[in-house]
Amino acid sequence: MWKDFREFAFRDNVLDLAVAVVIGAAFGKIVSSLVENIIMPLLGILVGGIDFTGLIFKVGDAKVTYGVFLQNVFDFLIIAFAIFMFLRLLTKLKRHKEEEVEEEQDVKEELLREIRDLLKDE
Which residue spans adopt a coiled-coil conformation according to this UniProt entry (predicted)? Predict the structure, then answer.
């Protein structure tokens, strides 16, 4: 059983997933800080200093803090957009790199054809 667990835990895809989770958590903190410390204060200036977290209404003794919910929704949208843009950039870079490799392969194949043809002629 220990051997099976060790093989499962140390497979490449499990380790890759663990690294991705740690990096994702760190990236989430960065984006949350961006939203909380830069974007929301600027948005507050644009809309006259409104702070979403202060939006509360009371029902009897209960406080419904819908402003905190709105803040969390906005945070989610900004984080999702930031991750989308990051992944889009990575995809473009990867595609560009793959195109360069394909072009390099095409050049090599063409050179090999030319060498073959020259050797046939001799």
Answer: 87-121
- The answer to whether the CB of 79 falls within 8 A of the CB of 32 is yes
Structural domain range at position 10: 2-121
d(CA 72, CA 77): 9
| CB neighbour class for 68 (10 Å; exposed up to 12, middle 13-18, buried from 19) | middle
pTM score of the predicted model = 0.49
Other CB atoms within a 10 A radius of the CB of residue 113 amount to: 10
Euclidean distance between CA atoms 11 and 41, whole angstroms: 45
Number of compact structural domains in the chain: 1
* CATH number of the domain within which 113 lies: 1.10.1200.120
